[in-house]
Amino acid sequence: MLKSILSSLFVIVAFLLQAQTYYVFVGAYVPNAADQGINVYVLDANTGQLQHKSLCPNQLNPSYLNISPNGKYLYAATEARVPKGGSVSSYVFDSISGKLTFINKQISGGENPVYVSVHKSGQWVVNANYSEASVSAYSVNANGSLNPPSQVLQYTEGSKVVQDRQAIAHTHSCVFSPKYDQVIVPDLGADKLRIFNFDPKAKEPLSPANPDGQASPAGSGPRHFAFHPNQKFAYCIEEMSGTVSAYRYKKGKLSSIQNIPAHPQEITTGFSGADIHASPDGRFLYASNRGNENNIAIYAIHPGKGTLTNVGYQTTFGNHPRNFTLDPTGKFLLVANMLSNSIVVFKRDVQTGLLSKVSMLEGILSPSCLKVRAYQN
């Protein structure tokens, strides 16, 4: 009887997987917009192979991407590398044809927008600018287009611990809290996790929380941030010190519980932490290292304490893993090797957390961001 039930469940799961298409959106650094844009691939949910589906061309440096909750719209941080020239762009996605179409763009409030996040309502987009250390909020129209920024909050003072990198503030990402009532903003230049309250009904939705942040280790350079699926813990990859900090998150406040190396003991210089994500099952945390390493650090997460134990490192088979992501099921982990122009897909062992390469695409110009979403056929 049990065997029959399990067999039936397997058939149902297999059918559901076949009934979905897993699209992969690839942002990139393409300073000559005529070269490329945003590429769209299909991820085979069984094999991990990637097949090219479409290209939204002539997009300048769509370096970081995010998707609306309904999957219909995509937003990109588009760097210009000229003063006040950065922008945030919006696109509409047709999941039947697999085509992405540009809608409009608005100024970002800086030259180096590096991160965008979308509110659960789909009615707000938040952006972080690195060079000017500012955070911008945009209201979204019914057709997915962006209005001019409703708010731009700018910061100047850096920690000055590492003078050439921290003379001024550098906001590097902006992540909504699990309830979407706050935004966490790692500031690499200030060694601080800035915390903003977010009111989606307000014309200017962002306001500094009280207290307005959590200090990071001196000279660490906090970069990217991820919440645990249980919403009780959170993790930050620190670019300059090659470390990961673990936090408890309670009543809108962060409290430090651990700081752990993201690199093997034999690596002593050249740290360049980049991206960080927890697995959907909440059992493992992954962090990417560029610089002298080019690997993914793998940690087991203590279910009750949220603390981390390193269980291994996985080479990314490329150079400069600026960004990576996991598919919604947690079966695959995909890495963008920006300086070696490749995307590598790993299968994830759900019991050990370890990774094994299943496919690799080469010749993709400077991939910098990957987003995966399942769409019903």
From TrEMBL:
Pfam families: Lactonase (PF10282). Its EC number is 3.1.1.31. Keywords: Carbohydrate metabolism, Glucose metabolism, Hydrolase. GO terms for biological process: glucose metabolic process. Residues 202-223 are annotated as: Disordered. It comes from the Bacteria. GO terms for molecular function: 6-phosphogluconolactonase activity. It is an enzyme of class 3 (hydrolase). Belongs to the cycloisomerase 2 family. This is 6-phosphogluconolactonase. It comes from Haliscomenobacter hydrossis (strain ATCC 27775 / DSM 1100 / LMG 10767 / O).
